[in-house]
């Protein structure tokens, strides 16, 4: 089976309220048969946020393949193309980092661990003596393990005392966390993947699920292809596979002008009020702010919404009618909203729709503010994104005292005098020289951050001592002062938590190459070198193994919304992952939050006191307590305001970036998979057919796309993007397994994006910029964009995207296992996995 050409594999349709049938997907290295596999090692896939349970095939000490686990509640045995072809093949690459590197006379040279860590500790101690803890910054990932994030958080907050700590989750899912806090009091997904089995309608807001969460899209397709399909509503400026499914199911495709999401959401919300679709009794008991919200959205009639967004007024009415008339709606949200103008306000507006209809906490009625990375949720839970561990509140002295007691340090050591420093500000401090040591782990900001030429100048400018720990010599690592070789997935043990709070344990399958070490061991080595101590003079970090770190985290989470107190490594070695909160009260986890309509907004329990969605101004503790939330959710609104940068005479088009199904982030792993790289080997830019005709551009022509900040030169795909809009994938930097761009033309999509961020979530804008496109040269063939996805061409003789017979790949439908507590087995009754509120709330 060619799972490059057939991305989602064979269908297994099933009726509403029934269990999703199991199908086991498998891929093995060419020449390896299943009987050749010596061991299958339990894990979960790390190439999107879905968290699919899988097993790693091991032969001769190498990872040689992967297969899905039929009994896992997340994926029921399925894997997507990235998981099948890209999750393990990178590990055997010849260009792995195997020894530490240090910069000598402008060049990176190999050294030993003692020398490399000694140099880091020397700079660290000097900066602490000269400038104090604010001289240190940490920028991490959404791809490490829970145990590693928690260790890093303790080092930063209790060892050094720096607030300068964030992850690249700031670029992709910071808005998810911010929106949950604003509406419900704390972070944490209310909904569940099992809502797909029960809903009457699915709304996807800026979420190209077929390419970003391929297995979840398989789950949707197996419902929409049944005899009683849910309607699909798609909000996306491109005609994606979601848009096609919306038309097929009698739903709606709303393609708003880039940067107008807030106006569209206000229009949909107004229609619920205007058409009497609000559950007034439920809203009165369980929410605050309904009259203010009604007043905010009143000007956004369908006609006014259509004028701002460039959509049809009747489509706005129809989408609102589907939401208002359905008994159970599942909404999913991703980068089209998060990385755009008024990000948090638009994401909160999705919550408003559900709260107004009383559709939360029950089967089929849920919200999934999606993540982009496999362990983004752990970054947020453990405090490696700058938040306090366990969803604690920086502004609540009792929460700070709890951590100080847990870690046995002085409360004043824990930086809580101001909100944590977000990534965009950390890099600005590095640019100015106030952050003198910047430690980057498992991410590649030289390619992934906005205005990437500026980021490269910061990293290579000499004002900041930069440490990078990674698997390969990435574009970022090339600029570092010290490079530390890290072990990757399958080469170490640890846990991670997916979008719907399901925790998996990934066991070590093989040894890392050379002298590479796990990220946990690297952080412990730094803590030892710095000799961090608690108030009694004992070592601050008291664990040495992943399991010991997990046990320490479990105690930190006890009584908080993300309660892991009922979990252990032994429990996680069972047949499936387990969703938190997992406690004595709910020993097998919790499928949905807020089933009782009581939210985490109590002033003594909440994670934040909230913000003004328009300005980002904070709500004081006194103001918050005066609202007397008493477990009620907040309905918050904001008027639409135009984006910072709009098209004009010089830059007449709108520029937006995104992903393709065959690559993950900056291709550090997927670019080293022959199958995936062959499917999407080089960058491109998508234009609509009318724009292409006007500009005299044909399929495959080389074009220059330019914004006020920079430019790329790539081949053009004439595709299904909205007229007036240019789309470019952000995955491509300077590195390639093959020389696909021998002329060295710039192709980093983030050369054009801007260093501006949402006022609440601090997530930068990747979806709103002005640009112009000019033809550089005639093409000698089609663009390298895939034909299987939203990037398919409009007409023209373009060969279809295929994978070829590179390896043994199969999909086998198997008898559906008995999933403990899968609510699809009992649609109206909480099952083995509870549907409950987080423990410890008032």
Structure characteristics:
single chain; 842 residues; alpha/beta; seven-stranded mixed β-sheet; 28% helix; globular
Q: What does this entry show, briefly?
A:
This protein is an alpha/beta fold.
If helices are DSSP runs of H or I spanning 4 or more residues, what is the number of helices?
26
Sheet-strand content, in percent, reads: 15-25%
What's the number of extended β-strand segments? 30
How many strands, which pairing sense, and closed or not: the largest β-sheet? 7 strands, mixed
Distance between the termini: 53 Å
Q: Rg to the nearest angstrom?
A: 25 Å
Strand order of the largest sheet: 6-5-17-16-15-7-8
Shape: globular
Instruction: Label the structural class.
Output: alpha/beta
| Fraction of residues in helix | 25-40%
Please state the average pLDDT score: 94
Which parts are unreliable, with pLDDT below 50 for 5 consecutive residues or more? Answer: 825-842
Cofactor: Mo-bis(molybdopterin guanine dinucleotide); [4Fe-4S] cluster
Pfam families: Molybdop_Fe4S4, Molybdopterin, Molydop_binding
Family: Belongs to the prokaryotic molybdopterin-containing oxidoreductase family. NasA/NapA/NarB subfamily.
Keywords: 4Fe-4S, Iron, Iron-sulfur, Metal-binding, Molybdenum, Nitrate assimilation, Oxidoreductase
3D structure, described in words:
The chain is of the alpha/beta class and 842 residues long. Helices cover 28% and strands 17% of the residues. The protein has a 7-stranded mixed beta sheet, with helices on both faces. Strands 24-26-25-28-23-27 form a 6-stranded mixed beta sheet. β2 and β3 form a beta hairpin. The longest helix has 18 residues, at 113-130. Residues 825-842 have low confidence and may be disordered. Pfam families: Molybdop_Fe4S4 (PF04879), Molybdopterin (PF00384), Molydop_binding (PF01568). Residues 778-842 are annotated as: Disordered. This is Molybdopterin-dependent oxidoreductase. Residues 786-795 have a biased composition (Low complexity).
């Amino acid at each position: 089976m060619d799972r490059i050409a057939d991305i989602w594999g064979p269908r297994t349709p099933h009726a509403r309220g029934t269990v999703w049938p199991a199908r086991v997907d498998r891929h093995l290295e060419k020449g390896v048969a299943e009987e050749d596999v010596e061991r299958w090692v339990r894990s979960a896939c790390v190439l999107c946020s879905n968290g699919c349970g899988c097993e790693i095939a091991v032969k001769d000490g190498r990872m040689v393949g992967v297969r899905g686990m039929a009994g896992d509640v997340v994926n029921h045995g399925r894997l997507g193309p990235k998981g099948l072809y890209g999750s393990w093949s990178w590990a055997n690459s010849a260009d792995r980092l195997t020894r530490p590197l240090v910069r000598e006379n402008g060049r990176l040279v190999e050294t030993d661990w003692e020398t490399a860590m000694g140099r880091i500790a020397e700079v660290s101690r000097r900066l602490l003596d000269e400038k104090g803890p604010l001289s240190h910054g940490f920028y991490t990932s959404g791809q490490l393990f829970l145990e590693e994030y928690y260790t890093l958080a303790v080092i930063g907050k209790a060892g050094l005392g720096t607030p300068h700590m964030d992850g690249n989750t700031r670029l992709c899912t910071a808005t998810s966390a911010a929106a949950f806090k604003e509406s419900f009091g704390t972070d944490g997904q209310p909904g569940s993947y099992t809502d797909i089995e029960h809903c009457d309608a699915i709304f996807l807001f800026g979420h190209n699920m077929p390419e970003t969460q391929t297995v979840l899209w398989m789950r949707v397709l197996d419902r929409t292809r049944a005899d009683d399909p849910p309607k699909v509503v798609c909000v996306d400026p491109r005609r994606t596979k979601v848009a096609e499914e919306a038309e097929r199911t009698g739903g709606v495709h709303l393609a708003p002008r880039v940067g107008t999401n807030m106006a569209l959401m206000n229009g949909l919300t107004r229609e619920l009020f205007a058409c009497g679709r609000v559950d007034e009794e439920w809203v009165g008991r369980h929410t605050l702010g309904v009259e203010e919200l009604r007043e905010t959205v009143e000007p956004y009639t369908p006609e006014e919404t259509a004028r701002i967004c460039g959509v049809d007024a009747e489509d706005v009415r129809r989408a609102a009618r589907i939401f208002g008339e359905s008994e159970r709606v599942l909404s999913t949200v991703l980068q089209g909203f998060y990385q755009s103008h008024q990000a948090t306000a638009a994401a909160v507006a999705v919550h408003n729709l559900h709260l107004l209809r009383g559709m939360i906490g029950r089967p089929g009625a849920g919200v999934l503010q999606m993540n982009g990375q496999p362990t983004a949720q752990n970054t947020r839970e453990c405090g490696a994104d700058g938040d306090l561990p366990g969803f604690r509140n920086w502004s609540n002295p009792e929460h700070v005292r709890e951590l100080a007691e847990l870690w046995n340090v002085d409360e004043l050591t824990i930086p809580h005098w101001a909100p944590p420093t977000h990534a965009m500000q950390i890099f600005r401090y590095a640019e100015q020289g106030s952050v003198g040591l910047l430690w980057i782990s498992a991410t590649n900001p030289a390619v992934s951050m906005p205005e990437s030429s500026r980021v490269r100048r910061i990293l290579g400018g000499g004002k900041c001592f930069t440490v990078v720990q990674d698997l390969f010599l990435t574009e970022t690592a090339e600029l570092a002062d010290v490079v530390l070789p890290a072990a990757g997935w399958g080469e170490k043990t640890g846990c991670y938590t997916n979008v719907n709070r399901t925790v998996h344990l990934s066991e070590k399958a093989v040894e890392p190459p050379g002298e590479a070490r796990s990220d946990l061991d690297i952080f412990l080595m730094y803590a030892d070198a710095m000799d961090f101590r608690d108030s009694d003079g004992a070592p601050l970090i008291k664990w040495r193994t992943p399991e010991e770190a997990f046990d320490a985290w479990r105690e930190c989470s006890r009584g908080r919304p993300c309660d892991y107190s009922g979990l252990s490594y032994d429990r996680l070695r069972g047949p499936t992952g387990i969703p938190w909160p997992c406690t004595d009260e709910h020993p097998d986890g919790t499928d949905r939050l807020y089933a009782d309509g009581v939210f985490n907004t109590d002033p003594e329990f909440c994670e934040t006191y909230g913000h003004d969605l328009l300005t980002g101004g904070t709500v004081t503790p006194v103001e918050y307590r005066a609202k007397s939330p008493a477990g009620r959710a907040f309905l918050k609104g904001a008027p639409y305001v135009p984006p910072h940068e709009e098209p004009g005479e010089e830059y007449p088009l709108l520029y937006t970036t995104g992903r393709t199904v065959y690559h993950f982030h900056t291709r550090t792993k997927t670019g080293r998979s022959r199958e995936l790289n062959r499917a999407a080997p080089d960058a491109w830019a998508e234009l609509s057919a009318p724009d292409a005709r006007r500009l005299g551009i044909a399929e495959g022509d080389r074009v220059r796309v330019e914004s006020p900040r920079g430019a790329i030169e790539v081949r053009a795909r004439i595709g299904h993007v909205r007229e007036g809009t240019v789309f470019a994938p952000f995955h491509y930097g300077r590195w390639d397994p093959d020389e696909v761009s021998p002329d060295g033309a710039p192709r980093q999509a983030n050369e054009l994006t801007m260093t501006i961020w949402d006022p609440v979530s601090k997530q930068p804008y990747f979806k709103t910029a002005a640009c112009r496109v000019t033809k550089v040269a005639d093409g000698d063939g089609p663009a390298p964009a895939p034909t299987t996805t939203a990037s398919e061409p409009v007409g023209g003789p373009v060969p279809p995207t295929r994978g070829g017979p590179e390896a043994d790949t199969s999909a086998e439908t198997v008898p559906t296992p008995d999933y403990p507590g899968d609510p699809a087995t009992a649609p109206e009754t909480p099952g083995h996995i509870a549907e409950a509120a987080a423990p410890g709330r008032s």
